[in-house]
Write a structure and sequence with these properties.
The chain is mostly helical. 69% of the residues lie in helices and 1% in strands. Helix 5 packs antiparallel against helix 13 and helix 6 packs parallel to helix 14.
């Protein structure tokens, strides 16, 4: 009952004009951050963090959280309309989101994206509120073997569920692992494949590689066809929103499964990127018509977006309960909490329950 009381107290704090205004500003800024490929949620939060130093902790946390959630959704906009992922975790959204836009269903795809983002975030918030103490203790035991198992399952799903030939998928993964090996080994401190270049000490940035792979190729293809970057218009109306919401019960299994996957990988943490791909692949695996994925199926938007937002939100749980950030953005928020006089960890729930 205490958890319910704290939850309702939180809603009471949120539904004030000041906090609502900060939420709107944060969401708009976050969407702009997400739409711009290469900037990313962590960078956006880091850039805007100094703006909150003069605010009270509640206002600052609300604004930064909304920036983060706005960035999560903003990445889906360019993924659907231009086939250019605004964020790394939006790559899986392009698989069916962009084909839907090509079929004139961009509004439906965007509606599915923001609806699933709300569902995934809501499930994660409820999880943080009610299960924080027990889950935080379990997450602390998550070590290298568990991380290896999560990513091995993800790689196996790529091979088993990929549309291309198996050997092509394996070769692509091998190239990806090779690129991931470039840079400074964080465990041993050894340099790997830097070839004397200081620019390679930090390795190959995943988001840069994704934008180059998907974005530049799409730009070149478009230039070859029309010599112009062509997107797809999306006029969202109340009728479109209601029609998508009407079909939500058909996909409740996918939404629940993706929410669970996202929360699991956010807490452990596996990350929103792995969660989005795993959510998409499992939705395809258990679908009655898996061959329809990649051709503009709305379930292919629901699954990765729900998983990504659930993961991004639940990554705050180990940060709040243990002082261990579950993502880059959570690490920045951790620093912000310390600036505001709040020390994340087990005592945070005792000293600052509100």
């Amino acid at each position: 009952m205490e958890a319910f009381g704290l939850l309702f107290h939180g809603f009471a704090v949120l539904f004030t004009w000041k906090i609502l205004a900060l939420m709107m500003v944060g969401l708009v800024l976050g969407i702009f951050v997400g739409v711009l490929p290469g900037l990313g949620g962590p960078n956006g939060v880091a850039i805007l963090l100094p703006l909150t130093f003069s605010m009270d902790p509640t206002s600052a946390i609300v604004m930064l959280s909304c920036i983060y959630w706005g960035a999560l959704f903003g990445g889906a906009i360019t993924s659907i309309l231009f086939n250019i992922p605004g964020e790394a975790w939006s790559v899986a959204t392009t698989f069916d989101g962009y084909p839907m836009a090509q079929q004139g269903k961009a509004a439906e795809a965007l509606t599915a994206a923001f609806t699933s983002s709300f569902i995934g975030s809501l499930v994660a918030v409820m999880l943080i509120t009610f299960l924080a103490p027990s889950i935080a203790g379990f997450a602390l035991k998550f070590g290298p073997p568990e991380f290896f198992a999560v990513y091995l399952l993800t790689f196996c799903s790529f091979v088993g569920l990929g549309r291309e030939a198996k050997h092509k998928t394996v070769i692509s993964m091998a190239l990806g692992l090779l690129l991931a090996g470039v840079g400074l080994d964080t465990v041993s401190g050894q340099l790997r494949m830097t070839f004397g270049s200081n620019d390679l000490l930090r390795g190959v940035n995943f988001l840069v590689a994704v934008i180059g792979l998907f974005g530049i190729s799409e730009i070149l293809l478009t230039m070859e066809e029309r010599l112009a970057l062509r997107g797809h218009a999306a006029g969202i109306s109340l009728h479109v929103v209601l029609s998508v919401w009407k079909d939500l019960p058909k996909y409740w299994v996918t939404l629940v499964r993706s929410s669970f996957i996202g929360c699991w990988l956010g807490i452990t943490p596996g990350g929103a990127i792995a969660a989005s791909f795993m959510g998409y692949n499992l939705a395809k695996r258990f679908a009655k018509e898996p061959e329809s994925f990649g051709k503009g199926r709305i379930e292919g938007v629901f699954a990765p977006e729900t998983a990504a937002h659930a993961s991004g939100t639940s990554a705050l749980l180990p940060m709040l309960a243990l002082g261990i950030p579950g993502s880059g953005t959570a690490a920045i928020l951790l620093g912000g909490l310390m600036v505001w006089g709040l020390n994340p960890g087990p005592l945070l729930f005792v000293e600052h329950k509100d």
